Amino acid sequence: MLQRMQKNRGTMIDIVQECRGAALIGIAGHVNPDGDCVGSVMALWQFLKKVFPKVQIDAMIEQPPAIFDFVCGVSEIVTDYSAEKTYDVMIVADTVPDRCGEAIKYIDTAKKVINIDHHISNRGGCDVDHIVPGASSAAEVVYELIAQKEEYKKLIDKELAQTLYIGIIHDSGVMQYSNTSPKTLRIVAELISYGFDFPKLIDETFYEKTEVQSKLLGKALMDAYTLFDGRVMISMTDLKTLREYGADKKDLSGIVNQLRIVKGVDVAVYIYEVGEQSYKISMRSCSDDIDVSKVSAHFGGGGHVRAAGCNIDGTYEEVVNSLMEQLALQMEDDR
Ligand code: 5GP
Ligand code: MN
Question: Which CATH architecture has domain 15-205?
Fold first, then answer.
């Protein structure tokens, strides 16, 4: 990667000024894009296209789950990374460059990399870092970048408001998780004034599940077991089950949240197999005193105090054992 200058960590930036003069801009987000990744990346894409109509701006994330197909710009996402080109600006939203999948190729060679995020685990290191750990979502951070100046804010239309809203509801559990602040709610109040059908949007992108997704959830709950006197609940879905149901990893989102709301559970751990002796871990903690981002960071992952994830290789038993060792350290701290 080019030597990065690093400036502005945490302080407000002017995203328009940072992109001024660029002829080619890319916007990347994390692999397995979720609602906030889609919301923050596509909101930046929509906004920057309005500000710089003549500039080529590429949204570069993996194809999101079909529930987000209606979001403006999703049909134009660039998924072919074969072209050799140098981006003047690459924006990385809702994650760190290393978690951007194939787009890392363009991030590594970009003339300028701007990181916009809200993950406490993000230590920065790009040319411009704008990381706001107190924000509910990357979409909330993007809203503030746009709303800071009246001339930018007036570019928000119904479509852009809806896109930002999707990011916020998905990362805040529809304004319920502890990352929801009074500011989040004020922003959401502003956004719904643009008049999109928010109850429908919440149902169709957040709560609704297909029959297969519901059955996989049901199976995961049936298979779940507890450790640490019921304080930790674990479940796992293997590739064989996914094949049996004709499903893929996109059909598993939300399962960890159902484990989290079981009475007496302090930490939910949901594991799915991604390959031979290779597992993806999602963790949720019910208390600020049990920091699952520290557990995932130990395995090279990241996230927030109450929601984090990582990948671990090994047999299932090895994975659970090493995870529980790390989790025990966090839970001891809690005593
Ligand atoms: P989820 O469990 O919903 O996949 O992720 C929870 C949180 O942890 C999200 O903020 C997500 O971005 C972060 N996260 C999940 N997996 C990883 C990972 O492998 N690496 C990093 N850095 N963050 C992760
Ligand atoms: Mn996020």
Answer: Alpha-Beta Complex (3.90)
Distance 75 CA to ligand 1 centre (A): 25
Give the Å distance between the CA of 153 and the centre of ligand 1: 30
Is 211-334 CATH 3.10.310.30?
Answer: yes
Cβ of 306 below 6 Å from ligand 1: no
Assess contact for 305 and 298: CB atoms under 8 A: no
Report how far residue 259's alpha carbon sits from residue 297's, in angstroms, rounded to the nearest whole number: 22
Would you write out the chain's pLDDT as a tens digit for each of its 335 residues?
A: 445 555 555 589 999 999 999 999 999 999 999 999 999 999 999 999 999 999 999 999 999 999 999 999 999 999 999 999 999 999 999 999 999 999 999 999 999 999 999 998 899 999 999 999 999 999 999 999 999 999 999 999 999 999 999 999 999 999 999 999 999 999 999 999 999 999 999 999 999 999 999 999 999 999 999 999 999 999 999 999 999 999 999 999 999 999 999 999 999 999 999 999 999 999 999 999 999 999 999 999 999 999 999 999 999 999 999 999 999 999 986 55
d(CA 45, CA 34): 16
Rounded to a whole number of angstroms, the CA Rg of the chain reads 20
